Amino acid sequence: MVARGSSAARAVGLAMSAVGSVLLLGGCSVAQTFDGFGWPEGITKQSQRMYDLWIGSVVAALAVGFFVWGLIFWCVVRYRKRSEELPPQTRYNMPLEILYTVTPFLVIAVLFFYTAVVQTDVDKLSKNPDVNVEVVAFKWNWQFRYTGTKGPDGQEITTTGASDYIPILVLPTNKTIQFKETSKDVIHSFWVPEFLFKRDVIPGVENKFEITIQKEGEYVGRCAELCGTYHSMMNFEVISVSPDVYQQYLSMRASGQSTPDALRALGKGDNGYAKLT
Asked: What does pTM read for this prediction?
């Protein structure tokens, strides 16, 4: 009896040691993991909704996990083998069967409900957004058109990438920005990691989405769909600025200045993202 008890104690000790070793070996990454439970910090209003959903889901998963782990360890200790006698067998316990069926259904139903609510909110489109941007993807670059604006040639202000130039998309903060996506050839995908959101750009299909950026900064965007030979080079840059600076940028572009010249005059875009190296 003593030997069996010692074995159980050693097993628990080894398990605790293993958990401790993983935490110690993880170092700083452990702190980063528990800061938001591994969910990165976004810069849009929509990303905050997704962050809240992630936190709630992880907390629910941990609660269920600790409950199940507790039952497992309790069973290991409580019903460990004490003799050669076969213990009483339990069959067809209806209350337990109902509990096992109803509880997972309730957990899934709650998660499904909140997921549907957040997804609907993230995909919601305004009838009159503050800014409209048309995204045109092609092998292997991007073109951004500021819908409703006029350049020196009377056409909409446009920024187009080239083999030696990564296009820059300037956007205002705290304004609703609606994107309309089209592709000239194959499937691409518009992705800015800090948005915590991406949407495919499909030929013959007009996809839309809307965001509200809450933080000024400069962010790298990428194509997230394998689209051919130079897919890895299909990058762009997003620069979020205050609404006043954004209007100054549009005025400079309307007067005939290029995107780099306008940004240079405004003291923006000096981090080198827009230069192909």
From this structure: 0.74
